[in-house]
Design brief:
five-stranded mixed β-sheet, Rossmann fold, alpha/beta
């Protein structure tokens, strides 16, 4: 009886090893099957030229267009472990929003999981991107992309360096009203583009309408879901009712895509920064791409 139990245990152990064996050693080998648990990870995988190795992503992974055609494993905050297992990934790219218990479950199953926290600055966006490139075996390509992005950021900084610094409110949430604060890459958009963040004295992004009005920003940038006809448009019309604001008087209340402003790759960070620099300094930045 004991001998029979030992034989059964051996068979169970062997099956278990066969199931998870492809996941071990992924740290040494170039991963051929990638699963992304968030839009920015998916975008970065394609940016690194590894989109053909991506076998699964979330329903919110829509950039680039090819990401829409990948097998969907759930949402950003609720993934299907069963669907991920079926895809037999070599590496899984988690985000700050991936539930910790699900990350642990995947790790306990033997999968290699890399979790990328929410970056706090452009510099951190670049560091994480290079880290991803290293994990996917394309570090040189990642470093090259980051080098070009940093050069573009420096070019924009130099272009606005000697200009007056308009007061800016960059809105990233509503009900409650929420703006960019120091220690965030969204704040970097303002400072690198040559503006002054009107809520720079706050430790948190939640603020009051009265404070924004009393500070009288020269530029208001709205980066929330919706378009001119959606929630963002409603917010823009709300601001336009306060005709005492310089931003309203000079028609400098803008809407930008929140996907670009709140979840950027090194490349989309530069594109968004150039866009915001044109909003803050339209006379200076007319030739910026």
């Amino acid at each position: 009886m004991i001998k029979l139990l030992k034989n059964l245990w051996f068979l169970v152990s062997l099956v278990g090893l066969l199931v998870v064996a492809p996941c071990f050693g992924a740290g040494q080998d170039i991963p051929r099957r990638i699963v992304s648990l968030g839009p920015i990870n998916t975008e970065n995988v394609f940016l690194l030229g590894a989109g053909d190795r991506l076998v699964g992503d979330t329903i919110y992974c829509v950039r680039p267009e090819a990401a829409r055609k990948k097998t969907k494993i759930g949402s950003v905050m609720q993934i299907s472990i069963e669907k991920i297992i079926a895809l037999q990934p070599d590496i899984i790219l988690a985000t700050a929003l991936t539930r910790t218990e699900q990350v642990r479950q995947l790790q306990n199953l033997g999968y290699r999981v890399i979790r990328f926290p929410q970056p706090r600055s452009f510099a951190e966006i670049c560091r994480q991107f290079v880290g991803l490139g290293k994990a996917l075996g394309v570090r040189e390509q990642a470093e090259s992309i980051v080098k070009r992005a940093r050069a573009e950021v420096e070019r924009i900084k130099e272009a606005v360096a000697t200009r007056p610094k308009p007061k800016v409110f960059l809105q990233v949430g509503t009900r409650p009203l929420f703006g960019a604060v120091p220690g965030s890459f969204v704040n970097d958009f303002i400072t690198l583009a040559g503006g002054v963040n009107i809520i720079a004295d706050q430790g948190k992004g939640a603020t009051r309408l009265e404070k924004v009005i009393s500070t009288n920003p020269d530029v208001i940038i709205i980066a929330i879901m919706g378009s001119e006809t959606g929630i963002a448009g409603e917010e823009k019309r709300m601001w336009q009712r306060f005709d005492i604001l310089h931003a309203v008087q000079n028609e400098r209340v803008f809407i930008i895509n929140p996907d670009l402003a709140c979840s950027p790759s090194p490349v989309t960070f530069v594109k968004t920064l150039a866009m915001i620099a044109r909003m803050i300094h339209p006379d200076l930045m007319e030739g910026t791409k």
